[in-house]
């Protein structure tokens, strides 16, 4: 069934005041039932203590692995919960053996947090990090990738949907090429899970890292990781505690043989429950339905912006996510964001440091990022467009 933005807006306290919320790529608006789940659990902890409160929700916590398995197309034993996408990504990255002369391949839209970690570890062990060129549309080129792959490549880091624009990278082709060369694929699904299908069974990725607060509309400080069970034996598992492993004798340990090996014992149970509730909400709406709705509403915004003289849209690629980036001639991005915020339109700035390779290549430093989810009505997008037109006019008059 088609998603009705009015109905989903009613579930969303942040939509009730008329605000135009266009920042689901940053930190989205949670549905009321997600916020209630978190707050109710915090209250329960104040009544009976965190351990008993968690015990009461044990079944729901366990069911969370199945919920994410359904969302990501894998087995429940292949899911780990963490406190951010970066934490998930790091857990996977640190587990991949890397030695001198090994190679890591990344794409032009690599995310800043991943890049810093890769460059530093590569430098420490004497490995290299190399960029796979994109094709003219901006998608990573599977042909260029195949040329770069050899037996020294340990893994390919692939960002499904970058943080700074509407690009969607081809995942299956990259995974197939990498696997042919014996390399693993670490898929950053941070900007895709919750708005578009990003599944282990369809993509073949070895790891998928994601976050709660963006398109899934979960609480901040939550993340999740898919890890293919059949590769666990080949990984370094040296940052695990007595949840990810077992202290079997004073001088002996054993690691778990499922993805929970990547979890730590302690976590925010309230946030975890909220994250699970957010994933349930997404599954009830339907991932294909969400994709269609986001495609529609972000397409309206992207096309509307492209029609405004003085606005440049910066989205690469042929298929687009719900992220729309642009700038206004003569007006720095933070000023556009501030002007829109004064009219209760929430967008954000995407900066060079988040996606340095792509931004430097295109000569961009700061751009405005608008990311409407399915709960944004066409009327609200049109209001944002009118306001952007007003900013263009104001800049022209001011500059004359
Ligand atoms: C936001 C983002 C991340 C990091 O997510 P956190 O939950 O903040 O750790 C990683 N990759 C991409 C592409 C992102 O947009």
Structural account:
The mean pLDDT is 97. The protein has 14 helices and 15 strands. It has helices at 5-10, 32-48, 50-56, 58-72, 85-95, 112-125, 142-148, 171-180, 200-203, 269-285, 287-306, 333-342, 356-361, 378-399; strands spanning 20-21, 79-82, 103-107, 128-132, 153-159, 184-188, 207-211, 223-227, 245-249, 252-255, 311-313, 324-328, 345-346, 348-351, 366-370. It has 400 residues and is an alpha/beta fold. Helix 2 crosses helix 3. It is globular. The protein has two domains: 5-30 and 288-394, Aspartate Aminotransferase, domain 1, CATH 3.90.1150; 33-284, 3-Layer(aba) Sandwich (Aspartate Aminotransferase, domain 2), CATH 3.40.640.10. Bound molecules: pyridoxal-5'-phosphate (PLP). Pyridoxal-5'-phosphate binds at residues 84-86, 111, 113, 159, 162-163, 188, 190-191, 211, 223.
Q: Give the neighbour order of strands across the main sheet.
A: 2-8-7-6-5-3-4
Count of domains: 2
> What is the H/E order?
HEHHHEHEHEHEHEHEEEEHHEEHEEHEH
Number of helices: 14
Which secondary-structure class do the elements indicate? alpha/beta
Biggest sheet record: 7 strands, mixed
Function: Probably catalyzes the conversion of hercynylcysteine sulfoxide to ergothioneine.
Modified residues (N6-(pyridoxal phosphate)lysine): 214
Protein name: Probable hercynylcysteine sulfoxide lyase
Cofactor: pyridoxal 5'-phosphate
């Amino acid at each position: 069934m088609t998603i009705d933005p009015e109905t989903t807006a009613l579930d969303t306290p942040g939509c009730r005041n008329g605000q135009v919320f266009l920042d689901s790529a940053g930190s989205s608006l949670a549905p009321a039932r997600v916020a209630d789940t978190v707050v109710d659990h915090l209250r329960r902890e104040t009544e009976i203590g965190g351990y008993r409160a968690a015990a009461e929700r044990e079944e729901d916590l366990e069911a969370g692995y199945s919920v994410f398995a359904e969302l990501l197309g894998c087995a429940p034993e292949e899911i780990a919960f963490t406190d951010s996408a970066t934490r998930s990504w790091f857990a996977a990255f640190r587990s991949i053996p890397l030695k001198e002369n090994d190679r890591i391949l990344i794409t032009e839209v690599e995310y800043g947090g991943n890049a810093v970690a890769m460059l530093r570890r590569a430098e420490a062990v004497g490995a290299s990090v190399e960029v796979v060129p994109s094709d003219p549309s901006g998608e990573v080129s599977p042909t260029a990738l195949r040329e770069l792959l050899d037996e020294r490549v340990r893994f390919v880091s692939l960002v499904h949907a970058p943080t700074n624009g509407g690009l969607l990278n081809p995942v299956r082709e990259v995974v197939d090429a990498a696997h042919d060369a014996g390399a693993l694929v670490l898929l950053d699904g941070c900007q895709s899970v919750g708005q578009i299908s990003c599944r282990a069974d369809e993509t073949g990725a070895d790891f998928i890292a994601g976050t709660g607060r963006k398109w899934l509309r979960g609480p901040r400080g939550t993340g999740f990781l898919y890890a293919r069970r059949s590769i666990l034996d080949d990984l370094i598992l040296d940052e695990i505690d007595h949840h990810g492993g077992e202290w079997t004798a004073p001088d002996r340990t054993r690691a778990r043989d499922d993805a929970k090996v990547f979890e730590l014992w302690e976590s925010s149970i309230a946030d975890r429950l909220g994250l699970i509730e957010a994933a349930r909400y997404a599954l009830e709406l339907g991932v294909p339905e969400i994709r269609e709705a986001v495609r529609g509403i972000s397409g309206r915004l992207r096309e509307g912006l492209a029609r405004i003289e003085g606005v440049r849209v910066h989205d690469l690629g042929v298929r687009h996510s719900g992220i729309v980036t642009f700038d206004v001639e003569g007006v720095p991005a933070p000023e556009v964001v501030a002007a829109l915020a004064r009219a209760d339109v929430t967008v954000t700035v995407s900066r060079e440091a988040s996606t340095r390779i792509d931004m430097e290549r295109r000569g961009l430093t700061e751009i405005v990022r608008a990311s409407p989810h399915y709960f944004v009505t066409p009327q609200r997008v049109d209001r944002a467009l009118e306001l952007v037109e007003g900013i263009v006019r104001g800049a022209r008059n001011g500059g004359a």
